[in-house]
Amino acid sequence: MIGFVAAIAVELSKGQDLFAQISEGGIPWFIGTSILLSIASLVPLFQGVTAESKSDGLMTSDAELWNGRLAMLGLVALAFTEYVKGGTLV
């Protein structure tokens, strides 16, 4: 979800498409952010807290799952659209 929002934000601010962002040093940022967020998401698990135990109201584990899935589809759609169009989305 963070990657999708970051890709759109950089595209709007700098005018770089997704492939340009990756080729200009985006891979180390992607790997570093992925490791950091993965470790951060494991901390509550080690403390015995599950997503289901903290789910209530609008912030449920199912809502988070759907948000993640839609963000993945959005990132793939962004990359595909930019590839077909041959440039930035905006």
UniProtKB/TrEMBL annotation:
<feature type="transmembrane region" description="Helical">
    <location>
        <begin position="25"/>
        <end position="46"/>
    </location>
</feature>
<keyword id="KW-1133">Transmembrane helix</keyword>
<keyword id="KW-0472">Membrane</keyword>
<dbReference type="GO" id="GO:0016020">
    <property type="term" value="C:membrane"/>
</dbReference>
<dbReference type="GO" id="GO:0009507">
    <property type="term" value="C:chloroplast"/>
</dbReference>
<keyword id="KW-0812">Transmembrane</keyword>
<protein>
    <recommendedName>
        <fullName>Early light-induced protein</fullName>
    </recommendedName>
</protein>
